[in-house]
Amino acid sequence: MSIFGVYGAPHAANLVYYGLHTLQHRGQEAAGIAAFDENGKGLRHRGLGLLGEVFNQSILDTLKGSIAMGGVKYANASKGGLDNVPPLFFHHHSGDFAIANDGNLINRAEVVSYLESRGNIFMTDTDSELMADLIKKEETGEDRIFSIVSALQKMEGGFTFLIMTKNRLYACRDRNGIKPLALGKLGDGYVVSSETCAFDLVGATFLRDVEPGEIVTIDHHGIRSMMYDEHPRHLMCGMEYIYFARPDSDIDGCNVHAYRKESGRRLCRECPADADIVVGVPDSSLSAAMGYAEESGLPYEMGLVKSKYVGRTFIEPSQSMRERGVKMKLSAVHSIVDGKRVVLVDDSIVRGTTSLKIINLLREAGAKEVHVRIASPMMTHPCFYGVDTSTKEELLCSHRTLEEARVKIGADSLGYLSPESTVASCPGREALCLACFTGKYPTPIYDHETEINK
Ligand code: SF4
């Protein structure tokens, strides 16, 4: 998921559209935008599909006003269907409001039972609805910020929220800083985005990251900050740097491309390979492959090409069609890999099925040897913070040794980056969330204990 909000700029919904377009890599299942017009009337449009399938200019023209926000959704813990598509809109006598979020509550069951015991019933499976219900339950007639503080104090997990009223935007980040959220300046107004790469396209300049445990309020006074947790931690999701974020984004002050390149250099030092060329798996592994090539002195070659025009493969009824699905997305370049010993750099291995297929593609194109190098540690545990990394049993390395994993994917050799180097690739950083690699979760995991002890 990703979220993007605009305060104090004409045609704010258009800007949200462009912002979300830049963030489309974080969610392709559905998209939505909400706005308040100059009379304080709430407006919204959402639908299933890519942003360009859900919106056109005439729809955007109906979303008038200088305050707007939206999200693109990825099919994760909250199920599909239009009801769950962000932003959610709520009517209340104290004023209508909209909410969108990225990430997941890990204590969802606890929050649901707290609300149910107070008479709530739910329309969706979203954390945004829980946030709305908590805000309303905690409202005391004081400023709404206090009910948001109280709601956030009941939530545990990796998340960011945008909450929009007719004249105010609130941006909130979890106390462990697992999910990214950045603030930008746009003329006299402001933007908030899951990633900084969206700022350029809308003409905004980066101001700062929203801090872990912080609520930023944006209104006609400018921006104000309030901490809802006294002991915030900086445990950004390691997979943001490794895989999710765009290389042109800066997360918590570290550029994603620079991070990946450094992780590739370190990978080369930790797991050298006797080979002829270095090839990266497009697109998220290319920066790490460049770093590996630079450090090893081997040529970096484009041995794999990704088709730009393959979206989601909707119909996958048989194994042979699924195989074709990989070939539709990636091709090995025969003239480059034929007769070569290839170092294949990938960002991570989840189940191993894609690695097996890519190695086969390279061998079919004539590669003599394929030495797989992974720019992250062995993935052994599921994520409960909104990243779909599969169940523990499905993960290649949850019950396999390094050698067993190598045999399973059919590589000539296999090497992974150490957890220490995964953190150290980000200069000045002391820690990241690496729970899917180490099993050390940054929060209590509540009723997920049984899943990780299988
Ligand atoms: S468990 Fe893994 S994917 Fe999930 S937040 Fe932590 S590092 Fe990211």
Tell me about this structure.
The protein is α+β, with helices and mostly antiparallel strands and 454 residues long. The protein has 2 domains: 232 residues, Glutamine Phosphoribosylpyrophosphate, subunit 1, domain 1; 197 residues, 3-Layer(aba) Sandwich (Rossmann fold). Helix content is 31%, strand content 24%. A 7-stranded antiparallel sheet has the order 3-2-4-1-10-9-11. A 6-stranded antiparallel sheet has the order 5-6-7-8-12-13. A 4-stranded parallel sheet has the order 16-19-20-21, with helices on both faces. A hairpin with a 5-residue loop joins β2 and β3. It starts with a strand and ends with a helix. Iron/sulfur cluster (SF4) binds next to α8 and α16.
Briefly characterize the structure.
The protein is α+β, with helices and mostly antiparallel strands.
Shape: globular
Q: Let me know the CATH homologous superfamily of the largest domain.
A: Aminohydrolase, N-terminal nucleophile (Ntn) domain
Question: Beta-sheet strand percentage?
Answer: 15-25%
> From the helix content, strand content and strand pairing, which structural class follows?
alpha+beta
Class of the largest domain, according to the CATH hierarchy?
Alpha Beta
Any idea what the radius of gyration is?
23 Å
Low-confidence stretches: 312-317
* CATH level 3 topology of the largest domain: Glutamine Phosphoribosylpyrophosphate, subunit 1, domain 1
Number of domains: 2
Strand arrangement across the biggest beta sheet: 3-2-4-1-10-9-11
